[in-house]
Amino acid sequence: MMAEVLLELDGVTKWFGPVKANTDISMKVHRGEIIALLGENGAGKSTLVKQIFGLITPDSGTITVKGDPTRIKDPKDAIGRGIGMVHQHFQLVPVMTVTENIILGFEPVKGLNLDLDSARTMVVEASDRYGLEVDPDAAIEDLPVGTQQRVEILKALSKKVDLLILDEPTAVLTPQETDELLGVMKALAADGTSIVFITHKLREVLAVADRVYVLRQGRVVGEVATKDTDQAGLATMMVGRAVVLQVDKDEATPADEVLSVRNLVVQDDRKLPAVNGMNLTVRAGEIVGLAGVEGNGQRELVEAIAGMRKVVSGSVHLGTEDVTGKSPHHIHAAGVGHVPEDREKHGLVGGYSIADNLVLNRFDEPEFANRGVRNFGAIDANAEAYVKEFDIRTSGIHATAGSLSGGNKQKVVVAREMSAEPRLLIAAQPTRGVDVGSIEFIHSRIVDARDKGAAVLLVSAELDEILSLSDRIVVVHGGHAVAEMPGAGANRQEIGRLMAGGGH
Question: Is the distance from CB of 480 to CB of 266 less than 8 angstroms?
Fold first, then answer.
């Protein structure tokens, strides 16, 4: 017998001004079922789940929860109906403890006082019940990202939800943390909790979901049981064409050394050693992949190379030039393109137009300015060309970068950094949060950069990406290189063991 229909959408439609974000969407979620929502960036997935959680209101159509056709007024109303949501960007207060964050807005009281003891007990019991191990007394800011994710899930589950919405739940998790989360999702479903999750990662969909709804341009274009499909089938449904999931590239022909890092020591934001005597080289015409669990000095290394972080000791050379401690502007002028890990913080100015963001580090070049006077015609023509070439989905080049979906923001950064034909391209998490069609495109551009003679340093938490693109793989642990191997034929299990600190 089919399980109870917990959630049903019928003809849900949402407009934002002249843009139709969702069109006539219908779907069902049964109790204990895991549903994946797939689609390209800007396909309308996040808009849809926000309507289910009461963050925005549909313009037409009905949402039925446990047989009750209802208008969900706000998130508090959604929670009252047994719907919880974990957002892509965590909603936690860094200076507060795990317990304080979980009870925030729903604080238990004893008389007139906050009852922290019972709150703590509740957190411990929920942690045990759901298999989500957390320290109830730890401050959020001291926890790794994977543990913060657990806190967000516990926070939602503590409200006794029947339906849990997860928006890109593995976007910032390590492979090990991802596997743990998928296990938690399966356990929750087995216990009767329904899950709707948004992701771009097809392997995860096939590993954990029962059914998949695919959105394209705000419409449901397909629904399929995971047992009846594969990665290639899902990718085709998403994009509307066959997608090359495996990177097709010729063997590298490395030339001269472009980047040389010697005995580099760099501190993290807390002034603790993050890079500990790192040695690394990248030659023209090769892609060197840096494999490691996040938090092992990759971010600090990249920022030191790009001139964004102070070097304690050691050196960074571009060709024969010592650029240790030089400014980001100097390093860019020396021929370095940098796709940063955090596009929001370091890649874009959200309030600036797309056109301005596409010349952010070139605004003073003769092509775009004459004696300090900006050439708006050239800036606009540059933007129009890149929006077309990189398929940046936008209402126009003068729209703000902040108005774009995450994947389209990434395309703006990639377009700007790669199109300058740098001698060294640093690509840090280049496909984080982007859809499968965009991943295919960005990967092809990285290979193109290599084939044109660029030295490419690829830093990615996605081991599949490292294995697929790299001509040479360097494994980092504890802030230094622990192993190096050719990309061709590299063993996934061996790399995973080295990433976890399993010896050389």
Answer: no
**What span, in angstroms and rounded, lies between the C-alpha atoms of 271 and 291?**
24
The one-character DSSP state at 142 is G
Structure tokens given for 418: 């790669």
pLDDT of the residue at 131: 77
What is the pTM for the complete model shown?
0.72
Q: Is residue 1 predicted with pLDDT exceeding 60?
A: no
- Distance separating alpha carbons of residues 290 and 282, to the nearest angstrom: 11
Strand 472-477 to strand 19-30: parallel, antiparallel, or no bridges (unpaired)? Answer: unpaired
Q: How far apart are CA 456 and CA 200, in angstroms?
A: 24
Q: Is 257 exposed, middle or buried (0-12, 13-18, 19+ CB in 10 A)?
A: middle
Nearest to 298 by CA among 283, 313, 280: 280
Inter-residue contact 238 to 38 (CB < 8 Å): yes
Can you give the pLDDT at residue 503? 62
DSSP letter string over 302-317? HHHHTTSS--SEEEEE
Residue 504: Cβ-neighbour burial (10 angstroms; 0-12, 13-18, 19+) = exposed
Domains of the chain, each with CATH number or no CATH:
5-239 (3.40.50.300), 246-335+423-431+455-504 (3.40.50.300), 342-419 (no CATH)
| Burial category of 268 from C-beta neighbours within 10 Å (exposed 0-12, middle 13-18, buried 19 and up) | middle
Instruction: Give the tens place of pLDDT for each residue, 32-44.
Output: 999 999 988 778 9
Given this model, what pLDDT does residue 2 score? Answer: 63
Report how far apart, in Å, the C-alpha atoms of 310 and of each of 274, 280, 336, 350, 398 are: 12, 18, 17, 26, 35
423-463 pLDDT, tens digit each: 999 999 898 777 788 888 899 999 999 999 999 999 998 88
CB 12 within 8 A of CB 24: yes
Q: How many angstroms separate the CA atoms of 461 and 483, rounded?
A: 17
Any idea which residue has 């394209």 for tokens? 216
